[in-house]
Structure formats: structure tokens, C-alpha cells
Amino acid sequence: MTGQSRPGAKVLALAAALAAAATGALAQQPQPFFAGKTIQLIVSTGTGGGQDANARLVARHWPNHIDGRPTMVVKNMPGAGHLRAANFIANQAPKDGTMIGAIVPAFLLAQVLESSKGIQFDAAKLSWIGSSAAINSTVYVWGKTQVQTMTDATRQQVLMGGTGAGSYTQIYPHILNAIVGTKFKVIAGYATTNDVNLAMERGEVQGRAGNNFNSIRMENPDWLREGKIRFLAQVGLKRDAEYPDLPLMHEFGKTDDDKRLLRLFSADIAVGRPFIGPPGMERLDELQRSFEAALADPALLKEAKDMHIDIAPVKGEELQAIVSDIVSTPADVVARARQALSDLEK
To answer: Is the pLDDT of residue 142 over 90?
Structure first.
């Protein structure tokens, strides 16, 4: 056809123009914020324990559910009864979501009781992403000791291994001494809870507090299978389904006021294993949604089952409500609790 462009050429030209426009649109479309970035996950314990294993499990799967699929790197920051990591997240972590924490929530009580001059945060203002599980903690002794029950521990001294002054390894024995009349003597100074476990196996100490059921099942299943440890109490607001006959710590209170005080020291167990960010963290909604998705991922659940790690998620909004309630504990309860733990501050 002379003097006229061929229909086929017009079609090709139109297709090329559309392709160019599409390419331009894709080029102008912004990349997801986390694309190509690294998220640091700060863990408040040393390596090898239940908290560390849980955090690393989540870190392996969580990025798959974050838009942009960033890399997630775990960094351990033990010390000061978990306050070192809590302070770091609250004050030094960038607010863009690239640094978050997996921190044992003992720091909640530290704030309420003002038990440390090193507290540099308000827990109610932290960004609560979610918790992978809320599992009861424990107080136990090595099976070779003569102590059979909590009553026995009121009649004879029991050496308990401890880490930082703000950790459960010290808090539970001290509050039981003050309220229940037990004779726990904490041997402090161990760097990590794994060191406490080893010390107990070597006979340096006779027991330990602040280890949850899941960590024991994962780290030391032989202790349960062979009866190497003897539980004296569990810590939480309701009894674990697998241990319905094991008393809760607050049930040892002699009066209603005693029980209310011991419940204060049990409430943060409902927070479980939380993942948090600094106050005012950006992209909190995105991290909350992706965290929930990761904990429902069949691949994560399968690996958790193989590792004997329990997954029982708590949403960030629920954690925020629990934390706000804890930090607003009535002054009279706080005053008595502080008196009960006064020797920890010496």
C-alpha cells in the first residue's frame, strides 16, 4: 500500500508505546521500604537458651512475610536483667523499623518497682509488635536435693542460681522469701541462664527460678523424661494444661493481699515472648501484620514443632493493654512489693 503506513506497523508501534509506558510506570513505582534492607533483632539473653532459639526461629521466617523481604540478623545483648537490651531498643534503635527487640519482659516489673536506676524507658510507650507465645514460668530444684515441696523450702536453705538483679532468676526467690517464708539463697553472678543450668547440674546450686515450660522441653527434655528436676511452683495467671496439679506461685499467699502481690509478679508472664520496637516506631502496623502472618506460616509451625517450641501468638494490641495495666499498678501494691524486694537493691 503506497503512501500509507501498513496496519501491522501501526499495531507494532502501538505495542511498543504501551510497553514503554508500562516500563516507565514500573520504574517510577516506589520500592517497598524494606527491600534490600537488614532488620536487626536484638535478643536480651545469651545464645543457646529458649529465648534465643525462639527469636532465631521467628527471624528465619518473618522476613518472608514483610513486603520487600529484608534480611533479618539476630544480635544477642544480655545483661542487667534484660534492661541493657530494653534501654538500647528504647533509646538507640532507629524508629524506621530496622531494629527491633525480642526481650524477656522482666523489665516491666523493673519499671513498676523502680528497682533499678538504669531504667531509661516507659514500657507503655514502646511499640509492641506481638508475642510468639505466653507460657508459664517455673520454680524448681534439682532432683537430688531433699526439698520436695515449697513447704520444705520454708524449712531449709536452698541455693538458687541467679543472673542479673532484675531477672526472674532472682525476683521469684526473693519475693517467695518475703511473702511465703521460703529460705532461698540466690547465688548471683552467672552471665546467662545456661550458665545457671550448668551450675545446677554440677551441684554448685540446687535450683533455679524463671525458666518456662517450653524452654525446658526444648533445651533439657531429659530433665523431664528422667525426672532430674522437681517443680515447686509454676508462675502465671492460670495453671498450665499439662501441669494442672502444680500450684501457681500466687496460690502460696496466706492472705488476699499476699496473693494480689504475688499476682503482680505473675502478670507479665501473660506478655510471653514479646517483640518490640522503640517508642513511635514507624511501620508498626506493617510489622504487626507480617508478624501474625509469620506465626501462622506452616513452615514456621513445622520447624517449631520439630524444635519443641510452643507457638501461641498474642497480638500487639493485646500486649499494649496488658502492659498499660501492669505499669499502672496501684501505689499501695507497688510499695509493698518494693519492700519485699528491698534486699535486691542493696
So the answer is: yes
